[in-house]
Each structure stands twice: as C-alpha cells, then as structure tokens.
Specification:
Layout: E1 4-5, E2 15-16, E3 33-36, H1 44-53, E4 54-59, H2 63-68, E5 78-81, H3 102-110, H4 114-125, H5 130-145, E6 150-154, H6 161-173, H7 177-185, H8 187-190, H9 192-206, H10 211-220, H11 225-239, H12 242-248, H13 254-264
Parallel strand pairs: 3-6, 4-5, 4-6
Antiparallel strand pairs: 1-2, 2-3
C-alpha cells in the first residue's frame, strides 16, 4: 500500500499518505499528511480542492526557488518556510527548473555518471548537512504540534527534499521499508510528462547526441532507489541506523514517536 494521488489539474504528484499500513497493522489516517510538488501552477480548481483539505503548507525549497515560483495563495492556509538545502550549495537536480541541469552539464559531458554522482552526494547530505537537519527537525516538530486539517509539504517536484521528509515520517510511524521505497519511486510515474518535457528541451537546446549522456540526464532527473539507498547507508554510517538519525539528529525520542503514532495512526 502506498500514498494515494489527489486528482488535481496542474499538480500531478500531490498524494495523501492516508491508508498506508504500518508494520504493526495500524493505518495512517487519511486527510492528515500530504506530500506534493510546488503549488505555483495550481489552478483555481486545485486551490479550491486543496483549501478543503489542508490548513498548513511547508515549503522545503531554497529562498531563490520560493521567490522564482511562489506558491499559489489559498485562503485559510498557513505557509511555513523550512529550507532543506543552503542557497550556497548546488540544488541542480532537485530544483525543478530547466536551468538547474546546466550547473552540472559540463561534468556530465565528460562523464555521463556525473549527474548521478551529484545526486548521490545530495542524498548523503540530507542526513548530515546542518541546514537539512534543522529543516527536517522543524518539519517533525510541526507535525507533532499540528492540530486541524492536513499538513502539505513540498519541494519543487515532490521528489527529493519532499521525498526524504516523507521517508522520515513514514519511518517514524512504522511503514515498512518495502512500502517506503515503492512510494518514493512512484514519483517517476506521476512526474513523467513534466520530466520528459524538461529533459527533451534541454537535450534539443544543447544538441545532445550521445545516448549515454541522454540516459545520464534522464537518470539525473529521476527518483532512483540508489539515491534513497545512499541516504540510508549514510545514516547507518554516521548514526548506526536510520532510527539513530531520527533520535540523535532530529530529536525523535521514543515518547515523541509514540505521540506522532497516536496522532496520525488509527
């Protein structure tokens, strides 16, 4: 069981975690935890639908991304800003814009694997970078203290920063690793058209001919299990386990875990 897609006009990767089953047989409540891409292109119908579902939005993007594509305003919704990456660091591959590939394209021309290696380094940093840890710690704290309708969190495409935020709450609530991976990789299906448009424009503009380079660019823009593997691997190296990361880095004590389970499971 994975998250359920919410049918919207312009936001293909918006999903409700409700219905996901935990290892102890409990179920995540519907209408409480929603993952998404940015809200910049939300149609009037999308805003009406979201307005009926959510009362809080957590934006995980950098300030420059936030300013370039501000979220649509939805009445009655509180907007919280919790950046996961520092402005000074490269967000190529995680920022959903055409120009971000350019930042690593030179390296990819020399080595088609350079883009994938870049993404692996970002996924390692998610569990050790100070900005990332502060952002995810505030994310968990917000979910812990929230009362009301659903919380929606997003980055640019709902793939990487949002993906790891989703993994964090799924791990806390006790979702199986198998279902966590299945939910993570589903982004590729829902973002398929958007990703293809950006990738094809980039390939045409730069006259890319090499099939290896084309494949490297496509992989760079995908959710890949090897990326998530790297986050888990790094957490185990530094903290002993992903649970160790949750407790030592994010402050998720057994009592906080119990409170979150009581709040979001049934």
């Amino acid at each position: 069981m994975i998250s359920k897609r919410i049918p919207l006009d312009e936001m293909p990767n918006t999903r409700d975690l409700g219905g996901m089953v935990t290892k102890d047989g409990r179920t995540i409540k519907s209408g409480k935890l929603i993952r998404s891409g940015h809200l910049n292109k939300a149609s009037d119908n999308d805003k009406a639908t979201l307005g009926s579902l959510i009362d809080t939005v957590i934006d995980l993007r950098t300030m420059s991304e936030k300013m370039r594509q501000p979220d649509a305003e939805i009445g009655g919704v509180t907007y919280l800003y919790m950046p996961i990456l520092d402005e000074r660091e490269s967000v190529a591959g995680v920022a959903r814009d055409y120009d971000s590939i350019e930042k690593v394209f030179d390296d990819m021309q020399k080595d088609p694997m350079a883009g994938i290696n870049h993404m692996l380094s970002i996924y390692r940093a998610f569990v050790t970078n100070e900005v990332s840890i502060d952002g995810y710690k505030n994310f968990v704290k917000t979910l812990l203290n929230h009362e009301g309708k659903a919380v929606l969190w997003h980055c640019s495409a709902g793939k990487d920063r949002c993906g790891i935020a989703t993994v964090i709450i799924q791990e806390i609530l006790g979702v199986s690793r198998e279902d966590i991976y299945a939910d993570y990789i589903k982004t590729n299906e829902y973002n398929k058209e958007d990703a293809a448009r950006i990738i094809n424009r980039f390939i045409e503009r730069n006259g890319v001919q090499s099939e290896d380079l084309k494949n490297g660019i496509a992989a760079f823009w995908s959710a890949d299990c090897s990326f998530l593997d790297e986050t888990y691997r790094r957490a185990e190296e530094v903290y002993g386990s992903f649970d160790g990361f949750l407790e030592r880095a994010l402050g998720v004590t057994p009592e906080i875990r119990r409170q979150l389970k009581d709040k979001y499971l049934e």
